[in-house]
Amino acid sequence: MIVPDTKWRPDLSGAGRSKYKALAQAIRDGIANGVLRAGTRLPTVRDLAYQVGVTPGTVARAYGVLTNEGRLVAEVGRGTYVAGTLTKDRPVEQPLIQTVDERTADFRSSRVPDVGQGRLIDAAFIRLGQSHRRRHINYPTAETDFAARAAVVDWIGAARLGGFDADDVVLGNGAQNCCIIALQAILHGAHPVILTEELAYPGVRHAARMLRAEVVGLPMDDEGITPEGLAEAYRKHGGQVLLTAAEVHSPTTVKTSLRRKKEIAALAERYGLTIIEDDCHCTSQTEVPGYRAILPKQSYYVSSLTKSVSGALRFGFIVAPEDRGRALRQIAQSSFYGVAQPILDVCTDLLTSGDARAIRDKVQVHTAARVRATVNRLGGWDLKWREDAPFVLLNMPNGWRASSFVMACERRGITIRGVDEFVLSGDRAPNAVRLGVNTCSDEARFLRALEDMNMLLANPESTIDG
Q1: pLDDT averaged over the chain?
Q2: Which of 155, 194, 367, 163 shows the shortest CA–CA distance to 275?
Q3: I want to staple 389 with a disulfide (CB 3.0 to 4.6 A). Which of 48, 182, 253, 331 is the partner?
């Protein structure tokens, strides 16, 4: 039997080219007629593919569609199950934002470090409060947010994106909000498809679920998404948008080279794919142009002040493709009218006064020092790191599974993040964890936690007393 204790067996002999649709419908039918009951565990992607005679990609796509519909629940590390109802039993994921417990050594989060920016932000609010303006009564408009948009142009640097101005910039409430705005501008049709890295920030799944879109993971190497993988995925799944973190990829720290970007951009142009480059983790100047410079009519650039200045401000920005700024601004206004005017004015003050750059410089120094400390203490293990990335990828040595290492660290007051949380539904997780280096504010606790992790790695759990 394909599913234990059931007589369910899908017949895909007449499915033609749309085998994933036929498989999805067979699962729906099995749920509807009671053969596949709530809580039934379905086979793994590879097992079902083998038994039914289709590719693993076909099964993963069918599972993804039904998970988005709420008929299946995919739990990382446990498998795929039939949901109880379409509304109450949707998969529960870790929240994107979690409270930091100062009693623990937090390596799970990836937040901007405290380098004294709170006082500078307070001072900007005081300056703002001393010059009351009537526009703090009314809605923000394209006129009242112009100064903030112009400041963003200077902050990014026009050369990075191939030349743009304030009319190309649309403001949002952080990078996640900006990615959703850009996706709303692009996605259409009954079954939109988002292509992205096979390991992706969990917010991608959240956004896709909100927009009723399917997410397809793309294979990566040491330069990011592979052109061959993109071509194969587009052939199998189609797609309207490529969402990529090309400058600082989380959790791998991979940076996409200019040569690779040009190869990816050429494929995107051939296929009519729009590119969204999510650059939220980049805090340093880079010599590699963004996709907006390489393919200006088909590329959006998204970033924020969250990782370089302060997450509390919720100030993000999008640089739209050429001649698309006005249309994108209308989508943003339809969603939330505009970023609150006091936030616009405070961020403009920080950007134009030089305070934001001073904060960013300190953040870069702090991040580099934390990365070096991590590498000095864990350098005997398989690490992927960069001094300008606020996290380190740690591949597990023999004797450890990532999930067991996460729990062992938790018992010692250390929180870390398994890479399985970055895996798209149906894909296999690497045996690795991500260590965010900036959130733990207590330097002594940070260093002790690194020593504890080093000890754990050298002594797999079976040899350690509780």
Answers
A1: 90
A2: 194
A3: 253
Q: What's the pLDDT score for residue 97? A: 64
**What are the respective helix, strand and coil percentages of the chain, to the nearest 5?**
45, 15, 40
Under 8 Å between Cβ of 52 and 10: yes
10 Å CB burial of residue 22 (0-12, 13-18, 19+) is: buried
Question: 259: which residues sit within 8 A by CB, 6+ positions away?
Answer: 223
User: CB burial class (10 A; 0-12, 13-18, 19+) of residue 288?
Assistant: middle
- Per-residue pLDDT tens digits for 420-446: 999 986 667 899 999 999 999 899 999
Q: What is the mean pLDDT of residues 50-76?
A: 83
Residue 95's φ and ψ, nearest 5 degrees, are: -60, 150
User: What are residue 278's DSSP bridge partners?
Assistant: 302
- Mean pLDDT for 440-461 is 94
CA angle at 249 for the pair 383 and 296, rounded to the nearest 5°: 150
In the DSSP assignment, the letter for residue 320 is P
79-82: strand order across its sheet? 41-42, 79-82, 72-75
Residue 302, token pair as written in the block:
């998204």
CA distances from 190 to 11, 69, 211, 276, 320 (A): 25, 13, 11, 21, 24
C-beta of residue 355 within 8 angstroms of C-beta of residue 313: no
pLDDT value at residue 194: 96
Looking up tokens 């996605």, which residue turns up? 187
CA dihedral sign of residues 155, 158, 162, 167: positive
Type and span of the H or E element at 208: helix 202-210
- Between CA 181 and CA 205, with CA 76 as vertex, the angle to 5 degrees is 5
**3-state SS string over 109-140?**
CCCCCCCCHHHHHHHHHHHHHCCCCHHHCCCC
pLDDT of residue 88: 44
pTM over 0.70, yes/no: yes
β-pairing, 316-319 vs 169-172, is: antiparallel
In the predicted model, is pLDDT for residue 374 greater than 90?
yes
* In contact, 42 and 77? CB cutoff 8 Å: no
